[in-house]
């Protein structure tokens, strides 16, 4: 096995007739659990290959192995005919393999243009005169000292290179038009989730990589935003960019990819042209499980394939869920809501308000993020907070958790004002969170993550009982209790985030995009878990969810935010059929979707 200490990461050269990337018999286990088993693939120059499969199928582990973030147990990875198996991520980046991440990783306090400029580092030559020494820890101070000096006292070559860098950064920002241009000097943490993803894609591509690896690049984006990114990726493909793509949105895979690999249980279960793979019964079963149509009769032949293939399409605010499989949780609960006679607000007589916001204003510097927001969350109810990206949903949640302080307005929990109460005291009072992108402690085990959620508990015996209860609710976590959380699939990390929140015995859980990046089958399971928290445990839920139809299918009441203002509110069953929800949800993108 090749390691970074044995070979210099010189740019790979080879026979142009060979595949650019070749993977043979790649395998990886975590504490005896097989995550990837005997994976083979060839990626030609200029080709786009998509990897699909349910959560936990081994997709992200496969690209982590290819990109050098994990070392394989066995198998071989070749780049232009040269073995690069086991090279660390830094060396793979020098070889021209650039990537984005499943949950998005930008430098939060750096501006958009500074984030993108970081990606240009691989192309620096004049400002990295001793770049070959960077990989030797004992000599690393030499290139660092040289780069510092050349930054302070740049020569003509360094100035020309800095000009090329500025031009390349501007070109990447221009690729996303005014989506990023108007925010170029803003800190990345102030951006909407979609714009953080765009920034990350720009940072990965500015290095002119030989292979661009994208791990769920449109996760957390609505339909119009996904269409925009798809168009930009199609432009990159037309320019000859080689890409390896992990994505759950089958329509995007079919529009962009030349070949598709489907995985389940760490193994490749199908490969070929996109439409052939998405219609494969094995792939459909892996994504959706064994389901039946509306008449409960077995499906067979082409009707079976077509019905299940349609169910693979993503559900978005602009796409009703009427065609979704009737056995799915979302559809069942929506039907239940439509049959209900209870259309009262969550503050109806006899229903206790657990948490309330009254006239809350929040600003990021001169920019007002929330404008006189008022809402109510009842005891034992699910309230959905809807809106497009940058509408103020996550800001509302952060304000409730005490991570942001309102300039005006009040927040009350069970009648007691907590407007300026520290976050730790709010957690002790019964408020927990399942944050966007899960935010598990990657280097800690599953059980250590769960115990972190129990910091408000003092009795050891109670913590042990709670752990047993979590493992009973989420058997997959019990199987992986000693495994590092960062090696879990997206779905398993979502289970862990739920379990960690429950360890604090919450009365209210704030959930930010809990279905983001999950396969259709796992989306159903997450919705079932959310409904059970209300129905079985009596926990109140504030649900921020990009998939509006799904959120409203299990909610009791909903609020629609647009530009920091509450534009609509009402019982979930009414909002499900209100055209104004779609307009507010898509916002500016409705009229500018071609941008």
UniProtKB/TrEMBL annotation:
Residue spans of biased composition, Basic and acidic residues class: 335-352
Domain of life: Bacteria
Region entry Disordered, spans: 317-353
InterPro entries attached to this UniProt entry: AAA+_ATPase, ABC_transporter-like_ATP-bd, ABC_transporter-like_CS, BCA_ABC_TP_C, BCAA_Transport_ATP-bd_LivF, P-loop_NTPase
Domain ABC transporter residue range list: 21-290, 355-588
A GO term for molecular function: ATP binding
Stored Pfam families: ABC_tran (PF00005), BCA_ABC_TP_C (PF12399)
GO biological process, one term: L-amino acid transport
SUPFAM superfamilies: P-loop containing nucleoside triphosphate hydrolases
Record keywords, A-Z: Amino-acid transport, ATP-binding, Nucleotide-binding, Transport
PANTHER family noted in UniProt: HIGH-AFFINITY BRANCHED-CHAIN AMINO ACID TRANSPORT ATP-BINDING PROTEIN LIVF
Family: Belongs to the ABC transporter superfamily.
Name of the protein this chain belongs to: ATP-binding cassette domain-containing protein
Organism, scientific name: Bifidobacterium apousia
């Amino acid at each position: 096995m090749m390691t970074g200490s044995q070979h210099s990461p010189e740019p790979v050269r080879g026979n142009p007739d060979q595949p650019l990337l070749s993977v043979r018999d790649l395998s990886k286990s975590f504490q005896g659990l097989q995550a990837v088993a005997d994976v083979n693939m060839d990626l030609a120059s200029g080709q786009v290959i998509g990897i699909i499969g349910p959560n936990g199928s081994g997709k992200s582990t496969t690209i982590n192995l290819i990109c050098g973030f994990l070392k394989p147990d066995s198998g071989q990875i070749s780049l232009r005919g040269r073995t690069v198996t086991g090279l660390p991520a830094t060396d793979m980046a020098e070889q021209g393999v650039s990537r984005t991440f499943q949950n998005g990783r930008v430098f939060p306090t750096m501006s958009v243009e500074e984030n993108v400029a970081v990606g240009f580092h691989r192309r620096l030559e004049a400002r990295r005169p001793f770049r070959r020494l960077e990989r030797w820890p004992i000599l690393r101070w030499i290139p660092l000292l040289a780069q510092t000096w050349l930054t302070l006292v740049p020569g003509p070559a360094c100035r020309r290179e800095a000009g090329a860098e500025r031009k390349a950064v501007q070109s990447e920002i221009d690729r996303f038009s005014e989506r990023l241009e108007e925010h170029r000097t803003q800190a990345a943490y102030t951006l909407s989730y979609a714009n953080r993803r765009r920034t990350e894609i720009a940072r990965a591509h500015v290095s002119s990589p030989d292979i661009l690896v994208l791990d769920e690049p449109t996760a957390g984006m609505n339909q119009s935003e996904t269409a925009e990114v798809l168009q930009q990726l199609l432009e990159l493909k037309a320019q000859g960019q080689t890409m390896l793509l992990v994505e759950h949105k089958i329509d995007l895979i079919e529009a962009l990819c030349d070949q598709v690999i489907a995985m389940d249980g760490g193994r490749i279960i199908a490969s070929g042209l996109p439409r052939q793979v998405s219609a494969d019964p094995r792939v459909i079963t892996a994504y959706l499980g064994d389901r039946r149509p509306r008449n409960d009769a077995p499906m067979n032949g082409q009707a079976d394939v077509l019905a299940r293939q349609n169910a693979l399409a993503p559900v978005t605010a602009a796409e009703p869920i009427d065609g979704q499989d009737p056995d799915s949780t979302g559809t069942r609960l929506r039907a239940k809501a439509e049959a209900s006679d209870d259309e009262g607000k969550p503050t109806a007589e006899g229903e206790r308000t657990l948490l309330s916001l009254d006239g809350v204003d929040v600003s990021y510097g001169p920019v007002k993020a929330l404008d006189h927001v008022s809402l109510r969350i009842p005891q034992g109810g699910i309230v959905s907070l809807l809106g497009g990206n940058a509408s103020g949903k996550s800001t509302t949640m952060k304000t409730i958790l005490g991570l942001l302080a309102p300039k005006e307005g009040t927040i009350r929990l069970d009648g007691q004002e907590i407007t300026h109460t520290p976050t730790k005291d709010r957690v002790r009072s019964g408020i927990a969170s399942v944050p966007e992108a899960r935010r598990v402690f990657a280097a800690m085990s599953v059980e250590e993550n769960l115990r972190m959620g129990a910091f408000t508990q003092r009795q050891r015996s109670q913590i042990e009982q709670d752990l047993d209860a979590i493992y009973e609710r989420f058997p997959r976590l019990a199987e992986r209790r000693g495994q590092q959380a960062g090696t879990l699939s997206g779905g398993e990390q979502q289970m862990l985030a739920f379990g960690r929140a429950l360890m604090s015995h919450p009365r209210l859980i704030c959930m930010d995009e809990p279905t983001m990046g999950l396969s259709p089958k796992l989306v159903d399971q997450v919705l079932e878990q959310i409904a059970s928290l209300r129905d079985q445990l009596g926990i109140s839920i504030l649900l921020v969810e990009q998939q509006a139809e799904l959120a409203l299918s299990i909610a009791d009441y909903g609020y629609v935010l647009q530009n920091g203002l509450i534009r609509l509110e009402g019982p979930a069953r009414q909002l499900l059929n209100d055209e104004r929800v779609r307009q507010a949800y898509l916002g500016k993108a409705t009229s500018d979707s071609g941008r």
